Amino acid sequence: MGSVLTRIWDFWCSVRLTVLLLFLIMIDLWIGYFVLESHKSYFVPLNQLGLTEWAGTYGITHPLITSWFFVLVFLLASLGLNTFVCTTDKLISLLRAYSSFPSLMPS
Amino acid sequence: MSGIPPGEATFQGAVLLYLFGFFASLFRARRLSRISIGLGLCSNLLSAGARYYNAWPLLPLFQGPFFLPLFFGVCCTSRFRDDHPKVPLFSGALALMGLTALFFPNDFYVPFLKSKTIFSHLYFVFGVVGRACFFMSALWAVLFLIDNKNQNKGGMGPVYTWVVRGFVFWTLSMFSAEAWSYLSTGYPVVWEDASMTTTIAAWFYYACFLHLHLYGVWSLKFRSIFAAIGAVVVFTFTSYPELGAFRIPEFRWARF
To answer: Among A41, A47, A54, A66, which would you mutate to test the B interface (most chain B Cβ atoms within 10 Å of its Cβ)?
Structure first.
């Protein structure tokens, strides 16, 4: 169980994954530009309706046009998780290093 | 001269001076090139000031291409001053930017009530400065690819520095856009403007470059190619939408 969790943690704590996610977000946003340019009317109600209601109406009824947006939300959430795990990992290693040098602390 | 917009005449003068400066640098007339480009920058500054003055309090949103050579030229100043051997590359890029704005002019004004905030102007200015920095980094990357046969790490220094500068200004521009959007429409995202996605895409492109550079997985050559392609990315997705249709400029101030 422990090794599975470690593997999941290591998967999300990867700079390679960060670069891949950044690249995929960039590609998705470019696709979004061309879709948005020709189908603005599908996205304008997003501000009034909110994400949940918009996804249940416009989002579901026009999947070809709105799929880039859902992909973007997924990729951004993944990037958020990746950033959280990387930051936590770094903080843990910094705290470990800090506690292993008690003699440097003022008495 | 009466009836000729000062912003137009001074910009045309600036482009002619940039072109002269470029040809002078090609023929290694460095002093003449520096004087010409310096005068061109002064003329471009006057043009930018006049355009902003005439548009005020409206935001000259699509006049970025007229401001870009000015900021880019300022970024290049040290290259012109210390007689860098590849000065024609910088002066050529400067002249090309000027010519692009001259032959593809565009103008568009957002309704005053929607741009009556300092953030709309900050978005515009930071965006143009950020773009100038990204173009500088791309030029340095091209220089690195041409010059640096041994692929010394030090050669990538200016590329990285200009990307960081551009990234900071681009981030400030994006945050200003968010604040502007919220103040003018009540929503943080304006879906009517598709170019919003490409602006964010350019940010992610350079975030990707910074990760690749700091992580150091890719070779210096690939990193410099990535930075050089950045100029194409920035031009295609942020500068190109601001350009208008091809138009031969009228040099009305030169008529007797």
So the answer is: A47
Report whether A31 contacts A75 (CB < 8 A).
no
B84-129 tens-digit pLDDT: 677 888 999 999 999 999 999 887 777 766 778 888 889 999 999 9
Task: Return the sign of the alpha-carbon dihedral for residues B176, B181, B183, B186.
Answer: negative
**How far is the CA of B59 from the CAs of A81, B194, B244, in angstroms?**
38, 19, 17
CA distance A102 to chain B (A): 30
Q: A23 and B208 in contact by Cβ < 8 A?
A: yes
Which residue, among B234, B220, B248, has the nearest Cα to B154 in the 3D structure?
A: B220
Nearest to A18 among B192, B197, B211 (CB): B211
User: In this predicted model, what pLDDT tens digit does every residue of B232-250 receive, in sequence order?
Assistant: 999 988 888 888 888 888 8
* Spatial contact of B98 and B249, defined as CB atoms under 8 Å apart: no
Beta strands in chain B (DSSP E): none
Predicted ipTM of the assembly: 0.86
| B-chain residues near A46 (CB < 8 A) | 189, 191
